[in-house]
Q: What sequence folds into this?
C-alpha cells in the first residue's frame, strides 16, 4: 500500500483526508485512513493509505 502524508510546510486536516479518501475510492482504489506514533511521543501522524483494487480471477 502506498501512503500520502501531509508535507511539513502544509497541513492536511481530517476533512482533507476524507476528501482524498472519497476521490481515490471513486477512482477505484482501496483506501483507508491510518495513524502512527511519532518518535514514541503521545502525538500521532495521520496518513491515507491506498492500493489498486485486485480483480478476482
A:
Amino acid at each position: 500500500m502506498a501512503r500520502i502524508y501531509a508535507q511539513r510546510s502544509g497541513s492536511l486536516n481530517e476533512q482533507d483526508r476524507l476528501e482524498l479518501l472519497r476521490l481515490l475510492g471513486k477512482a477505484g482504489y482501496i483506501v483507508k485512513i491510518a495513524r502512527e506514533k511519532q518518535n514514541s511521543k503521545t502525538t500521532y501522524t495521520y496518513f491515507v493509505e491506498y492500493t489498486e483494487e485486485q480483480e478476482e480471477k
User: Anything to note?
Assistant: Helices lie at 14-26.
